[in-house]
Amino acid sequence: MSQPSAAQRLDQSQARIERALSAALPADQGQSHRLFQAMRYSSLNGGKRLRPALCFATAECFDQSNPSHFSAAQNQSAIDAIAAAIEMIHVYSLIHDDLPAMDDDDLRRGQPTCHKQFNEAIAILAGDALHTQAFLTLSNAPLPADIVVALIRDLAQAAGAQGMVLGQAIDLAAMGLSLNLTELKAMHEHKTGALLTASIVMSARTCGATPAQLTALTEFGFHLGLCFQIVDDILDVTSSTEVLGKTVGADHKLNKPTYPSMLGLEHAKQLAAECLNQAQKSLQTAALPNADPLWELARFVVERDH
Q1: Is residue 1 part of a domain?
Q2: Phi and psi at residue 111, in whole multiples of 5°?
C-alpha cells in the first residue's frame, strides 16, 4: 500500500487537528462566550497546520505495533494532545504578532485578524488563554507522569524566553537595523525553528525515541525550521495576498531584515536548498524505522507556493 503524498498528508493532518482542537477548546457559550469565540475563530480557521503535520508524521516514522509505554489508542490520543497544544501556542503567537503593537496586520489565513474581527483587548486575552490552554491540554495527555513533565518542559522551552518569544523580541528590535546572516539565522532559530523542532521532538519522545534519535531529530528540526523561514521570506516577495492568505510585502513595509533582502532572491533559494540537504543528513542520522513521512513534508516546505 503506497504512502500518501505530502499534500495528502497535510489534508489528513488538517482534518485531524481540527477535530483535536475543537474538542480541546472551550465551547462557544456561557458568560465568557466572546473570549471563547475569539479562541475558536483564530484556532479553527485553517492554515497550513505544518506543526501538527510534523507531529503526526513523526509518530508514523516509529514502529508502533508494539509500543513500550501504552496502547495504540492511547498513543493516538497522546499525539493528538501534543499536536493540539503546539498549535494553540502557534495560534496565540499569531494573534499577538498581528496586534498593532507588533506587526499591525489586518489579514491572517485569508480572514480578518483576531483584533480586527473582535477587538484588541479580546485578542490579547484570547492569545493569553490559548497559551495556558495548551499546557492544560498537554497535562491531560494519557501518558506516564514523567513523559508529561518532559513534554511540558519541551514546550515551555520552545515557546518562551529561550525560544519563540525570544525570537519575536529579536525580530521587533531588528526593525530598521542591518543584521548579518548569522544574526538573522539565530533570530529564526528561536522565532520559527524552536516550535517546529518541538513538534518533532515531542512526538518522538512520546514514541520512545532514543537519546541519539532525539539529538538527530533536533538537528533535523533546526535545519527544517530555517528552510521554512527562508521560503516564507521568498514567498513574501514572489507570491500574492490571495495565494498566501496574508498581506504580502509586510516585512518590507516594516523594514525587517529577510533572506531575499540580505542575499538576493536566487541566493536565498540556494540557501533554502542547502538547509534541506542538511535536514536530510540529520534525518538519516536518526535512523528511524521509516523516515519517509518526515522527509516528504520537508521537501514540501521547499516546494510549496503558499
Answers
A1: no
A2: -125, 160
